[in-house]
Each structure stands twice: as structure tokens, then as C-alpha cells.
Amino acid sequence: MDRRKRVGEWVKSSRTVYRGSLVNLRLDEVKVRNGTTVMREVVEHPGAAVILPLLGPEELVLVRQYREAVGEVLLELPAGTLRPGERAVDCALRELEEETGYRAARIRRAFSCYLAPGYSNELVHVFIARGLSIGKASPEQDESLSRVSASLGQALRMMRLNKIRDAKTIAAILWYSRFAREVAAVKARRWRAGPAPSR
To answer: Residues 44, 59, 98, 143: which is the catalytic one?
Structure first.
């Protein structure tokens, strides 16, 4: 059974009204549980990868980039759109090097989340990158950005002061601050405690 039927929405018709190089716009005619018919505007997106590059446990790499959609220069984690058939981890490694010049010896998926499910199907995959070695950045022709290093404390403070306003960046840094460091602390405590005594 269609998942939308299980939650009480039936798609009566669907058509693509715009096809772009990055996104498509789909218009769905949907019948909801109470019998009302509504139109849903859906932005179709191929998905994206976001990278939290760590120079150390408490130091990360950001990029400063102008975003035409909001007319502002934003401080963000490096990120990019998946190419057709591209794995999220390969996209993450590619974008990290293109935008910052860094290559990662180790990379791990942290979590995935929908960016704006009210109108878009874009799924963002967040990765933690470690063991960085510097090379040369090679951003896309339409990108103008600069690399910024910050401590985790500085990044959290900028978020609190509303100086970091990019949602995917906020989510990734908060996840790392809350969960990844907590796991590392537990492992460190276990290591210091030594092996459990044998019985």
C-alpha cells in the first residue's frame, strides 16, 4: 500500500510544472482524510551531503559563502548536491576537497535529515571527517567562498548569537557537540578504568 494512503492522503494527480538543472517543481492534487482536495507544491531535490571537518576534537572548518536566495553571506559547513548516481559519501569527500582543499583520511556518516519536508523531499546526509590533510580548493565556477577555522566553542557561541544561520550547519554542529563528544567521553572513561576483572 502507498505510504500516503496509510497516513490518509491520496494523490489524485501529479505533474511536473518546472524542470531545472538543480530542482524540479511538482504539483500534486491530493485528497486528505476529511475528503477535501488540496494542491501540494513539492520541490524535488536529488539530495545533498554536508561535512563537519575536524582539525581536532574541538576545532572545525567552515566556509563563508554568499547565498543569492537570501542575499547574505553565510557561515556554513562545506556541502553540496549529489550528482546522478553518486553515493552520499563520495559527494561528501568531493565537496570537502572542492570547497576547503582538505582531504579526509577518515569519514563517517553521522545522520540524515530532511531539510524542509513541508515542501521539499531534499534529504541531507551529514558526515564527520577526520585526519585532514591540506591541498588546494577548487570550487565550482559559480561559487565564491573562503575557508574559516573555528573552535567548537566559538561555533556554538556564533550559533547562540545568530551569526550562524544555516540550518544544516546548526544541526550538524549540535549533533556533534551533544552526541559524538559524549560517546568519546564514555570510551575514554572505559579506557582509563581498564578491563573488567575476570571472574
So the answer is: 143
